[in-house]
Each structure stands twice: as C-alpha cells, then as structure tokens.
Design a protein that fits this description.
- The complex is a heterodimer of chains A (189) and B (170).
- With 189 residues, chain A is α/β, with parallel strands linked by helices.
- Chain A has a single domain (3-184), classed as Rossmann fold (3-Layer(aba) Sandwich).
- Chain A has helices at residues 3-13, 25-33, 49-59, 71-75, 79-87, 118-125, 136-148, 172-181, and strands spanning 19-21, 39-41, 65-70, 92-98, 101-102, 108-109, 129-133, 153-158.
- The longest helix of chain A has 13 residues, at 136-148.
- By secondary structure, chain B is α/β, with parallel strands linked by helices.
- Chain B has a single domain (3-133), classed as Thiamin diphosphate (ThDP)-binding fold, Pyr/PP domains (Rossmann fold).
- Chain B has a 6-stranded parallel β-sheet, with helices on both faces.
- In chain B, helix 2 (28-35) links the parallel strand 1 (18-21) and strand 2.
- The chains are: A alpha/beta (189), B alpha/beta (170).
- The A-B interface holds A 18, 20, 40, 42-48, 51-60, 77, 79-80, 82-83, 86-87, 172-173, 175-176, 179-180, 183-189 and B 15, 18, 20, 41, 43-47, 49-50, 52-65, 79-80, 82-84, 87-90, 148-149, 151.
Chain lengths: 189, 170
C-alpha cells in the first residue's frame, strides 16, 4: 500500500473530522490531495504529532480527531502512547503510516524495519483498540470501525517507503488560525 | 492566600482549565490542589516536551491550558518551542519550579537552571522571576494576559525565595 493511496482512502471516509499530519511527506501528501480547513499540518515538532492530536481530542471531546503519524516520529515519543491510554479519549483515532524508514532524510531504516513492533508497543502502553493493517481494504475497514466506535484507537498501517510528494507552499500561522476557526470556541485568543 | 492557592485562583480567573505536567516537589504544591478540583482537567505526561505538545493541541482547538515542569526538564521543551509554538504562535501558561538557585544542594541541578534565561532570550521568549508571594496575584494575571495577547508562551519562574524550594514545609 502506498502512503498516498492510504491517505486518499482516509480522506474519502473522514467527513469533516479534524486531521493532524506528521511533518514531511504526510503533511505534503495531505495538503496536495485536499487542503481542508480542518487540516493542521506539522512542519516540525517531530515526535509531537500524537501529543498535539491528544490535546485537540481533549479540548473537543464531541468530535472525532484523526492523527496521521509516522514511525520515526512516534519512536521519538513512545511515552505519548501511555499518556493517551491513561487519558483514554474515546474520540482519538491515531494512525501511524509505518514505512520503516526516515523517509525525509534519505530512507535510513528505523527500528520498525528491524525489531520494533509498534502495534505491540501500543497494546503494551494500554491503548484499548489497536489494529495492524497492511492492505488498503484492511485499512478502510479498521478506519471505518474507528470512526464508528469509541477509542482511543491506534492503527498501525504498513506502507511502502518510496513516495516523494511535492513540497507545498503553506503559511503556518494562517493554517493554525484557519484550523482554529473550525472549532466553536472563540474564548481563547 | 499562599502562593500555591494564588496560582490556582489565577488560572481559574483566566479560564485556564487544562494542565499538563511532569511533577516536581515545588509545583506539586499547586498541582495537588488542581488534581482535587473538578474545574481542572489534569494530564500527567512522561516528558516535558509532550506536555507542551498536548497543551498546544488544545489551543489549536480553542482551549487554554497550562504546563508545569521542573527547571531540570526545561531543556526537553526546546524543540517544541522552536518548531511549534514560535512559528505557529501558540501560547500556553507556563510554570517552572526552579532548582539550582538559593538553597540548592545538588550540583547537577545548577547548570540547566542557570541556562534557562539565556535560552529563552535566544528564542525571543519572555520570562518573569516570581520571588514574592505578596506580588504574585498581580504579576500572574498580568503574565497570563501577556501570554495570550502576544500569542507566545511566557515562562513564570517559581523562585525558591517564594516557594521555599523542595524541602519547604508542605
């Protein structure tokens, strides 16, 4: 499964739910496929995509929140899985595009290419709903279930490493303000 | 009111109801009050940078939050500050329980604490040393207003001169 096709499949099913995307290729693909108001693009903050998603999920418990993480990023912040499990937000759908490499820096293999099983780490951290998928059909089924049923969910999606999206031109500050306007909370400036 | 109660009240007055933290002996005197108060949603984290990420996400969804840490963990936040809070202009109310100052017994606590003002200056972020209980409520309400007006985190450095440090009577 190519990451770009996987992201397209999620976009086809996500409705208006907010999406937070990991830095690099995932942010680039998401923007190029559909630059929705409810997309929040990470351009740095490596490791923190899941943490940002958790904060959104806690602040907006009435909406499903989708995180598109990466293996390199999640490996940098494994404690986040335990924190998500302890908070247990029913509305959080944490997807990890696991391409087993640091794709943005030359394709060096990450630990998941060799020894580490992120689905097992998620289960061991206490995440109640964990799915490991490696085909588009299995991803679509798991994602539909995650959007229907309470979580928190962690979907580890095995994707191919080689896709090189064009780098989009995004104003970071504008992206944040546009994203914030999709929430009905004018109080916090 | 004692300093810890003043901080709790200041957060309530400003509508700051979410708090993420890595605990330490000084800030726990505030956090334990918040943990027992249904106004607050408390988020213990594994690492200071994670706490910054969570509260930043909450702001992206329109909610105000606070981050608590010890000075020894400050260094763990620099990547988040430099690549998330500053470029996106994401504020949060920030408390750092200071070690490495008057009363310190542990040499390993000193260098990291001493570096905080210099690192914050290099990042262009503001900070205030909170040293006096009798000035705290005014300082705190002002710093929280500044935090959201400037749309950047502003650090409240909780001095041992005010808190008594980790060995103060609780």
């Amino acid at each position: 499964m190519l990451r770009v096709d996987a992201i397209r499949a999620v976009l086809d099913r996500v409705g208006g739910a907010p999406i937070v995307s990991n830095l690099g290729g995932t942010t680039f693909h998401l923007h190029n496929l559909d630059d929705r108001d409810a997309n929040l693009y990470m351009w740095g903050a490596m490791g923190l995509t899941s943490s940002v998603g958790l904060g959104i999920a806690l602040a907006a418990p009435d909406r499903k929140i989708v995180v598109m993480d990466g293996d390199g990023s999640l490996l940098m912040n494994l404690g986040s899985l335990g924190t998500i499990a302890r908070q247990s937000p029913a509305n959080l759908v944490h997807i990890v595009w696991d391409n087993h490499q640091w794709a943005g820096t030359g394709g060096q293999p990450t630990h998941t290419a060799v020894v580490t099983d992120l689905a097992a780490v998620a289960r061991g951290s206490g995440i109640p709903k964990v799915a490991a998928v490696s085909t588009l059909e299995a991803l679509e089924e798991a994602f539909d279930q995650a959007m229907r049923e309470d979580g928190p969910w962690c979907i580890i999606a095995d994707v191919e490493g080689s896709d090189n999206p064009d780098r989009p031109d995004v104003s970071i500050e504008e992206n944040l303000q546009r994203f914030r306007r999709t929430f009905d909370r004018p109080a916090a400036r | 009111m004692a300093w810890a109660e003043q901080i709790v009240q200041g957060l309530k007055d400003a509508g700051v109801s979410l708090a993420a933290y890595v605990p330490d002996g000084v800030t726990w005197r505030v956090l334990r009050l918040m943990e027992q108060d249904p106004f607050f949603h408390m988020i213990p984290t594994t690492r200071e940078e994670e706490a910054v990420g969570i509260i930043s996400g909450a702001y992206a969804a329109g909610q105000r939050g606070a981050v608590f840490m010890q000075s020894s963990g400050f260094g763990n936040t620099v990547n988040a500050l430099a690549t998330l809070n500053i470029p996106y202009r994401i504020p949060f109310v920030w408390f750092i329980g200071m070690r490495g100052g008057p009363g310190e017994f542990n040499l390993a606590q000193v260098p990291g604490a001493r570096a905080i003002p210099g690192i914050l200056d290099a990042l262009g972020l503001q900070y205030f040393h909170l040293t006096r209980e009798d000035e705290l409520d005014r300082t705190l309400s002002g710093v929280i207003a500044l935090t959201y007006a400037g749309r950047l985190p502003v650090a409240n450095l909780l001095s041992t001169l005010m808190t008594g440090g980790r060995d103060a009577p609780r």
